[in-house]
Amino acid sequence: MQDKQYLMMPGPTPVPPSVYAAMSRPVGGHRTDEFARMHKRIVEKLKRVFQTQNDIFVITNSGTGALETAIANTVSARDKVLALITGNFGERFANIARAYGAELIEVNFGYGKDVDLSVVEEKLRQNPDVKVVLATQNETSTGVCNDIAGIGALVARTPALLLVDGVSGVGAIEIKVDEWGIDMLCTASQKAFMLPPGLAMVSVSDKAWGVVNNNKAPRFYFSIPAFKKVLDKWNTAYTPNVTLFYGLEAALEMMEAEGLDNVYTRHALLARATRAAVKALGLRLLAEERYASNALTAVWGPEGIAADDLRKIIKNKYGVIFAGGQGEVKGKIIRIAHMGFADKMDVIIAVSALEMALAEAGYPVQLGAGIAAAQEVFLGRV
Ligand SMILES: *Cc1c(COP(=O)(O)O)cnc(C)c1O
C-alpha cells in the first residue's frame, strides 16, 4: 500500500507530524535576528540534553561529519590515538583518525561486547602519550551501550581528550557531558532526535579548546574555530540547513514536553519489551542484557534461515523496515530500532511482523508468544 511504512531501522527514524509541520515553513534567511534567536534557543535546549555548559555547534552534516569535525580539530599527523572499538561505528571513528595521519592503538572488544574498563586503564598506563581517546556511546551495529562514565573517569586522569560518538545514543540514552568528562560529544539529527538526516551537533570542553585552537591538521568546512568566531552572534559559519533547524526546535520542544527523564524511561521500556519478545520466540540476542542498548536491539538470525531473507519478507509483506548486519555480522543479524519517535505499539507491530515472517520462513514459532511477552512488560507484570 502506498505511503504505509513502518521505519524501524536505526536511522533515519520516523519523523513526528509536528516536526514535519515545523519544517513546512517557508525557508528564512540565516543572517537574520529571527534565525539568531532560534539558534540560541536550540543550543540552550541541546545543553540540557547533553547536560553541559560547553559550547555546542549545530552543523550541516551527517553524523560522520560530526565525527570528522571532532578528529580534524584535535588530531594532528603522528598523534597517538586510542580507539575503543565495539563494532562498525567504532571502526569508522578509528578510520577517520587514520585518514588524518594518527598513530592508532586500536582495541577491538568484538561485535556484541562492550568496552572493558580494565583494558582501557591498562592501555592508558602503557601509553602515557595518548592524545585522544575515541569511544562509542551506543554502538549501532551491535546494539551495545558502553560505559562512557567509566571511560570518562579514566581519561580525565590523563592529558588525553575523550571524543564520544553519540550519534544513535544522545536523545535516547542519558548522557552527562560535564560530569563524565566528555571533551567532545558528536551526534546527528536522524536517530533519536526524530528528524530527517542533515544536521550534526558537537560539544567542545575547556580541555578540548586548547587543542582545537592549535591543531595542525588541515581543516576548512570542519573548522571549529571558524564556527566559534560567529557563535557569539548566534550565527553559523556557512549556510546551515535552516529547515532542519525549524524541525530541531520542534523536536526538542517535544522532548521537553515529555520530560527528558520520561524520554529515557520510555526507551528503556521499549528495549526491555523487545528483548522479552525476541527471547520468547527462542531467538538469541547479540548483546548481553547488562549492556544492551535502549535504542535498538540486535538479534541473531534463526538457525538455518538467512537473516536478510527474513528481513526481505518483513519488508515486502508487512512494510516493516528493520536493518541488517554490518561488518563482521553482515547477513547474520537483524537490528530492530526503537528510538526517537517510537512507542509501545511500534514494538507490537515489529514483533508481530517478525513472528509472521518466521512462520513463513519455516521456523517453529508459536504465533503470539513474542507479542504476549512484550505486552506483559507493558502491563508492568514482569
Ligand atoms: C548513524 C551513525 C553514524 C553515522 O552517521 P551518518 O549520519 O550516517 O554519517 C555514526 N555513528 C553511529 C554510532 C551511528 O549510529
Write a structural description:
With 382 residues, the chain is an alpha/beta fold. The protein folds into 2 domains: 126 residues, Aspartate Aminotransferase, domain 1 (Alpha-Beta Complex), CATH 3.90.1150; 240 residues, 3-Layer(aba) Sandwich (Aspartate Aminotransferase, domain 2). 43% of the residues lie in helices and 15% in strands. The protein contains 14 helices and 13 strands. The strands form 4 sheets. A 7-stranded mixed β-sheet has the order 2-10-9-8-5-3-4, with helices on both faces. α1 packs antiparallel against α10 and α10 packs across α11. The longest helix is centred in the last third of the chain and has 21 residues. It is globular. The protein starts with 5 loop residues before the first strand and ends with a helix. Pyridoxal-5'-phosphate (PLP) binds next to α3. Soluble hydrogenase catalyzes both production and consumption of hydrogen from suitable artificial electron donors or acceptors. This subunit catalyzes the tritium-exchange activity. Belongs to the class-V pyridoxal-phosphate-dependent aminotransferase family. It comes from Pelotomaculum schinkii. One of its GO terms (biological process) is glycine biosynthetic process, by transamination of glyoxylate.
